[in-house]
Amino acid sequence: MSDSALGLRGGKVGRYLLYLVVTAVFVVPLWSMVATAFSGGTPKLGQVFLWPHGLSLGNLATAWRYGLGRGLLNSVIVELIGLSLQITVSAFAAYALARKRFRGASLVMLAILATMMMPEEIIAIPLYLVLGKVGLIDTFGGLALPLVGWALPIYVLTGFMRRIPVELEDAARVDGAGDLRIFLQVIVPLCLPAIGTCAVFGFLMIWDQYLLPLLVAQSPHMNTLTLIVTSLQASQEQGEGVRLAAAVVLMVPSILVYLGLQRLFERGLLSGSLKG
Prior knowledge:
Elements: H1 3-37, H2 58-99, H3 105-114, H4 124-133, H5 140-144, H6 151-162, H7 166-174, H8 179-190, H9 192-207, H10 211-216, H11 225-234, H12 240-260, H13 262-272
Helix pairs in contact: 1-12, 2-6, 2-9, 2-11, 2-12, 3-6, 6-9, 7-8, 9-13, 11-12
């Protein structure tokens, strides 16, 4: 057998071993979590199953009785309010920064980016005091509105809009279109890949929020899904199956959103790596 054939076979073996390692690292933990969550058996503390001991929804039903359903509903409501406002505000802000020339525009962008370097724990107490002053504690507004202003989508959309040719807007102005019409009918359709990317990151940011709901939610009926899952994880009364069933419910929406926006997400990342 020639050296080239041996090298080709060795390359295939190495590639298959790499696939096996990646599968073991990423797929096996997820599979064991799902298998334990929907198993009819009762695992010991810290134990997980690689194969379910009979299929059962008992763990999910137990977690549901502990408020998992209400937490899921609250998280969906906060997600719908927060993400829609976040994308809308970010798109308008990015259009102003990308197209409108005004004094101090670079300082505004610098101030927006500076907020990304500030840990949320630093502003937790001032944020709580402000929300209390305006009466947003223990409300959906208090859970969603602080998440609207996020620097990442503003930064991404600003860079994307700056690469759109100005001639397209000039042609629309010749036809009598105003700024709002140009923004909605010209800029937004061209920015859909970047908006899809921002939507994926924004969904994950809002969905995984823990500190803000911990500050704002004062009554059990306002608890979000992250608070419910955390309380179950800390409980000594529930077994691993109930805890992992709650974790699966927390994980599934993120996977579905990524799969639904995967094409826009990949196009947005690709276009962001290219210069037009």
